[in-house]
Write a structure and sequence with these properties.
Length: 426
């Protein structure tokens, strides 16, 4: 008997029909002889709607109350799903994150899981019931307040619970048939990736492929837990996330594609610190101040200093939502650092090419840059990792850049195979 953790995203339970459809699928999995634990997201765009509502009441909702509000979304879907399963003649019991033993730190809005103690889930399973757990939420070990794990956090709940229960697989059900070589909403000719390593999936997720969130992939990698990403609207096999990029002996490694896919991200902004004195410690003081403000930066570029002035420019990218705060923090330290000016651009986009094969195949960057040049796209910044190349371009160029790159690396399917079954893409 296998233990399967199934996570259903908001698009899969968007309305009453969706909830009934998902309930049938869960019951069928159990009837086939498996033990099933379900993690569910809020219905459709509920979380966005609750956020909008909070922002209509106040521009700065207190974190504790915002988490209390947002976690109600998952409580609605978990209870409705348990009712739908009962109608089909099986017992289901819903649990909040706290009841399911998801223990976190006390950072509201982006809490980290520090322990999972799923005693009540195991008991429900032992008694033959199907546990339905509210995703995206936990309870703080210190304050005992309700916390949320960050947007898309139900993915993390599912993987964390699967790891704690020693499940055989974590199935992530969504509105597309798996992980594709790019978001099929932007590139309809994208191909489904049958199997991808944790490392490549982590890079795809971190570079904007929101089909999985990075933290859930990190978690799965740590516990070597296989993830199967698939559609709740079809019976097709999806994408298996398992194995490691360095592990050439993997069976599927033989067929390993050089490039796994392309990803894009329009959510970042770029700050340029103009006229920084070219002396020891300048970068340390800039990034020290940014770090103290709790901001995670992504790419950094420092220009060659002009001999005449002894000054240089430093540009870096960061989450767009942190842009204004970071500008204010830096402005307050202008005299101390001694820079001349600050520029901010939130009309940028990041386009990334991901593939473990690029480590051993020369010419990948050359081909990437050539495809962008042919498409008339100007590159503002470049960074690389062992298995990724990313460029920052103007936001208006993202679509063209993504499609050109996808084509240049032969990722387009011969016939359109990607289906987007639901969701609003919000
Ligand atoms: P859910 O409601 O199931 O959590 P999400 O909206 O979070 O669904 O994630 C699924 C969406 O991710 C898809 O509808 C698709 O538009 C988007 N997406 C982005 N990049 C990719 C990719 N490389 N492969 C598949 N889907 C992707
Ligand atoms: N409902 C939450 C969100 O929209 C969590 C999730 O769906 O994973 O971010
Ligand atoms: Mg999601």
């Amino acid at each position: 008997m296998a233990l399967v953790v199934q996570k259903y995203g908001g698009s899969s339970v968007a309305d009453a029909e969706g909830i009934k459809r998902v309930a049938k699928r869960i019951v069928a999995t159990k009837a086939a002889g498996n033990q099933v634990v379900v993690v569910v997201s809020a219905m459709g765009d509920t979380t966005d709607e609750l956020l909008d509502l909070a922002n209509q009441v106040t521009p700065a909702p207190p974190g504790r109350e915002l988490d209390m509000l947002l976690t109600s979304g998952e409580r609605i879907s978990m209870a409705l799903l348990a009712m739908a399963i009962a109608t089909l003649g099986m017992e289901a019991r819903s649990f909040t994150g706290s009841q399911a033993g998801v223990i976190t730190d006390d950072v509201h809005g982006t809490a980290r899981i520090i322990d999972v103690t799923p005693g009540r889930i195991s008991s429900a399973l032992a008694e033959g019931a199907i546990p339905i757990v509210a995703g995206f939420q936990g309870v703080s070990q210190n304050t005992k307040d309700i916390t949320t794990l960050g947007r898309g956090g139900s993915d993390t709940t599912a993987v964390a619970l699967a790891a704690a229960l020693n499940a055989d697989v974590c199935e992530i059900y969504t509105d597309v048939d798996g992980v594709f070589t790019e978001d099929p909403r932007l590139v309809p000719s994208a191909r489904r990736i049958p199997r991808i390593t944790y490392e490549e999936m982590l890079e795809m997720a971190a570079c904007g492929a929101k089909v999985l969130i990075p933290r859930c992939v990190e978690y799965a990698r740590r516990y070597n837990l296989p993830i199967h990403v698939r559609s709740s609207f079809s019976d097709k096999i999806g994408t298996w996330v398992s194995g490691h990029a360095g592990d050439e002996s993997e069976e599927a490694g033989m067929e390993q594609a050089i490039i796994s896919g392309v990803a894009h991200d329009r959510s970042e902004g770029k700050i340029t610190v103009v006229g920084v004195p070219d002396k020891v410690g300048a970068a340390a003081s800039i990034f020290g101040i940014v770090a103290e403000a709790g901001v995670n930066i992504d790419m950094i570029v420092q220009n060659v200093s002009a001999i005449a002035t002894g000054r240089t420019d430093i540009s870096f990218t960061l989450p767009g939502a942190e842009g204004q705060k970071t500008l204010e923090t830096l402005r307050a330290a202008q005299d101390k650092i001694g820079f001349q000016d600050l520029l901010y651009d939130d009309r940028i986009g990041k386009v990334s090419l991901i593939g473990a094969g690029m480590r051993s195949h020369p010419g990948v960057s050359a081909k990437f840059f050539a495809s962008l040049a042919e498409a008339g796209v100007n590159i503002q910044m470049i960074t690389t990792s062992e298995i990724r190349i990313s460029v920052v371009v103007s936001q208006g160029d993202v679509d063209v850049a993504v499609n050109a790159t996808h084509r240049a690396f032969g990722l387009d399917a011969d016939e359109v195979e990607a289906v987007v079954y639901g969701g609003t893409g919000r």
